[in-house]
Amino acid sequence: MKNNSNSLLTQPVLIIVIFAVFISCNQKIQHTSLSGITTDSSGLIAQANNFAVSEKNYNIPTKKTNNYTLDPAAWGIQEGKVNDAIALKNRIQLEAAFQDAVQKEVDTFKIGALDAFFDVVTVTKGRKRFESWKEAITIPANFNLAMSPETHLRTQPNNNARYALLSNGTHDNISITGGHLYGERNAHTYSGKSSDEWGQVLDLIGLENAVIDGVNIKDGNGDGMTVHELHFTFAADHDKTRNLLIKNCTFDNNRRNNLAITGGASIIVEANTFLNAGQDTPTSKGTSPKAAIDVEPYKERSKKTGELVHYEEAEDIIIRNNIEKSSRWQGFVVATGRDVLIENNTLESSINFGYSDHMVIRNNTIINPQMGSVGMNLGADGDRVFDNKIYNNVVKNFKQALSIRGRGYEIHDNDFENFNTGLRIYDLIDSEIYNNTFNGNFPDSRGLFIHVTTANNSIIKNNQFTTQKKPLHIFNLNFYDGKQNELQIVANTFTGNAAATIGNSYGVSLRENIFETGIRVQGTKRISFKDNQINSDNLDGIQIREGNTDFQFIGNRISSNKQCIQVLEVPDNFIKENNTCNK
Question: Rounded to two decimals, what is the model's pTM?
């Protein structure tokens, strides 16, 4: 936002009312969307070196004086634990010092050794109602705030459901570097009227052109950092957030999420460390979503028209080279989003997305130190999930390695290890899953698991499923809906100690696979086995049970020390030809 000019402070004295000064910026960072990133021949994102902002194109106009160093004593800022009145004075005086620096046209405002509490919940400046980002310590426009390792800015304990310690206040063209910012989750007095989950440490709102570098953000009663836009997308006074670089920061022990992005575009989150998101403490229980990073713009269908209303939008986001540890529920989640690239991250917790499209998740390592719930939980019901690519990831130590739902997936060249269930699909459409390895070492592990769902125009090809129990389980696929659908399972290797099973399912074509176990089929329609190799030492090669219709078993090679083909009930419209048996 944007350009007002009011009288400026010239002396370090206590001023109860401070007017913000907005100075127009002569140069803006040029926006580069994800759609402009170079792609390889398959259309996948190949590189992102020129995406959004970087230091070399971050440009605040040159000021007359280079540096301004805060003198806390001269400005009457009192350190240590203080009462609310003094904490409010601390906030007012720090903002007064900011404005003094603006008047002197300095380039960088420095804070050295300082450990102080700030009241950010008292309504000031003649306002009639509380808005957390307005009562935060507010950074002026065109401003570099440089904090030292000895800088500690703390939120005064309070009972407000909402607060923000530090905010840009819709001002543009800023940088924040270094220092330690604290919420007050362990000293918060809960209101009893709500979950009080909106206490933010750093609130970035309506912000264009910014770098947040090397800041430690801890103990927010809500999110450590929240990135959003001012007013809904369709509002006349909608103020966008874009061209934001968040790097080298440490987020720790924030009660809700460590970082939440509810609105914005051209955002890079790079080389940060995310710790203990949403974890309980002795005095403060975590609150959902309990994620290291949560991208969650609000969307809802109109009750009148049924059309999807985009109240907020988050798109063109890169999350790369970050470290995540010990999140309470999930690592990185994109609840709704578009054009989000997640790459080269190291996590202990899951990567998930919901109603999202044009996602790319690649080259990440997710290794849970114990046994997590789901390594990757991708997609949601309906038509809002499409064109997502997941490749070259390593996922280990989860009860369920990969769960997918939606349309238009390309999932390939991933390595999944140490799970109970390898791949679970729901309502899959127009998708390809190929060249992945699923290796389950646990006693009850299962490979490809499809249960009470639909799949159509999709192929599962050239994957390896190695488990201790069933490497393949399909039950009630296309049984209630989608009876004309078809799923192709081609050229995979299934190895396990229990028989592969297909039951009560419609429209599955299995060809050119290798089964290192026997197969059981019951209650199916439009199932075909063609040109498969079935090696079963201790089980019948294939056991065709009752209730099958339109069943084809053609050109298969079977090796078994029991029966190669056991037909307990001859299917209606049964074609069995050109199969070979070796005992």
Answer: 0.87
